[in-house]
Amino acid sequence: MKKIFFLTLAGMASLQLSAQNIDKIITREYTDHLIKTLSSDEMQGRATFTPGIDKAATFIESEFKKIGLQPLTGEKTFRQTFNKYQVANQSTSVKIDGQEIALENIMVTGVTTESVTLDKSNTTIVKLDPEKPFVAQFRTMLNTNKNQIVLVDNKFADLFNRYKDHFSKPTTVDEKDVNATNSAVQVFILGKDAATDFSATFKSKVTQMPLFNVAGMIPGKSKSKELVVFSGHYDHLGVMKSVEGDSIANGADDDASGTTAMIALAKYYKAQKNNERTLIFVAFTAEEIGGFGARYFSEKLNPDDVVAMFNIEMIGKDSKFGKNTAFITGYDKSDFGKILQKNLAGTEFTFHPDPYIKENLFYRSDNATLAALGVPAHTISTDQIDVDKFYHTVKDEYSTLDVENILSTIKAIAKSATSIVNGTDTPTRIPKLK
Ligand SMILES: [Zn+2]
Asked: How far apart are CA 6 and CA 359, in angstroms?
């Protein structure tokens, strides 16, 4: 009895000690410093391919260095750099039955090369049915692997213009897709209902652009081949249309809050010095424009070595379950959530399954790439995505955040990950997507 009594006392003492440590390591001052810097106007909204995101990367690198992380195996620095190619339209010319079509009535998709010429030898003319919905027909066209001139009724002008806005922006493609001979070009023409003869030329500029994740690690003591990943995306939308004189989308919640959590967790585990598994901390780039950073990261390692991924997205405001709660996407796809919840027993914090199943959040963040490869990779969030009026607006800034919510969520993640970090729990795998 006595022995057990003393053991219990010792156990309680060490629990208390780690609880003290966590409050000393993950302080309000520290998280404030991280999130204020990442969401400052100086970073210009951290859009991928801009000087603003470069500044954010430099800041995260300096924090990793201060904490004492190491670069990933095989890397010399914390930057994990890779290239993409931007294809920007330079000129467009479409003639139908001898008549030049006005630029505002032309929308082009699928150009990945410096110049394209379409004529009857390589292209067919089709027409959208004005009696059927636009969006479904538009999607079908995009999936047709053929060059097409698509005639669109004036009745669809509103939707046409909205889609045209999107597709007129430069597109980002992989090297293998530049000059890809199999990529089909679709030319949508508004306000024409018949055509027999046509010719079209498109000239674009293709530019190589570097992107970079920022990643560091703490090698595991006894199970160093088993990896646990903590992540958040540090890119955001950059500069948008001005609202009340503000045009910088600071992305304080999305996802400076998650990036802050990832850095604070690195600081915490580095101080604990008790991780049996190797811990990787990564700030992903280009989440907002297609998840390119997470995809590149997943190609640089063997997904079978990743035991779990904690991706953190938007923890800046109370969740719909109230104070001291957060939700986990894809909760039922592995027992990751149950393990986390078990480790929080006796605390005031609880994790819940994602309440926004219709929003498809599991596949909308950077966990999706590794999850598709079989990793129990989940996103932890507190965002009320259905009613969050600041989401993807210039108002997503520091002043709209509840820093206490961020602090309590980070500490809950730190505690809930303990048994995965020390190698005693291994979440079940998610079935691989074929
Ligand atoms: Zn996000």
From this structure: 51
Residue with tokens 């190589």, as numbered in its chain:
208
Q: pTM (2 decimals)?
A: 0.85
Q: How far is the CA of 397 from the centre of ligand 1 (A)?
A: 14
pLDDT of residue 1: 43
The whole-number average pLDDT for the span 124-150 is: 92
Q: What is the DSSP letter of 431?
A: P
d(CA 264, CA 51): 25
- The whole-number average pLDDT for the span 261-265 is 98
Q: Which residue, among 351, 335, 332, 340, has the nearest Cα to 427 in the 3D structure?
A: 335
What is the spatial distance between Cα 78 and Cα 72, in angstroms, rounded to a whole number? 7
**47 alpha carbon – ligand 1 mean position (Å):** 12
Secondary structure element (H or E) that encloses residue 225, with its range: strand 223-233
- The yes-or-no verdict on residue 3 having pLDDT over 80 is no
What span, in angstroms and rounded, lies between the C-alpha atoms of 182 and 184?
6
Which token pair is 386? 């259905």
Are residues 228 and 278 in contact, defined by beta-carbon separation less than 8 angstroms?
yes
Q: Which of 290, 279, 247 lies closest to 394 in space, CA to CA?
A: 247
User: Per-residue b/e over 122-155, b at no fewer than 16 CB within 10 Å?
Assistant: ebebebbeeeeebeebbeebeeeeebbbbbbbee
User: Cα of 313 to ligand 1 centre, how many Å?
Assistant: 6
Residues 349, 355, 360, 363, Cα dihedral to 10°: 20
pLDDT, position 26: 95
38: enclosing H helix or E strand: helix 28-38
Fold exhibited by the domain 23-84+210-421: Aminopeptidase (3.40.630)
Alpha helices for 144-275 (secondary structure H) = 157-167, 258-272
Instruction: Quote the ligand 1 centre to 410 CA distance (angstroms).
Output: 17
Q: Are strands 186-190 and 223-233 parallel, antiparallel or unpaired?
A: unpaired
Sequence-ordered strand ranges (E) for 158-292: 171-173, 186-190, 198-218, 223-233, 238-243, 246-249, 277-284
Q: 206 pLDDT exceeds 80?
A: yes
The amino acid sitting at 276 is E
Q: 338 CA to middle of ligand 1, Å?
A: 24
Question: What was the pLDDT predicted at 290?
Answer: 87
Domain residue limits, the chain: 23-84+210-421, 99-196
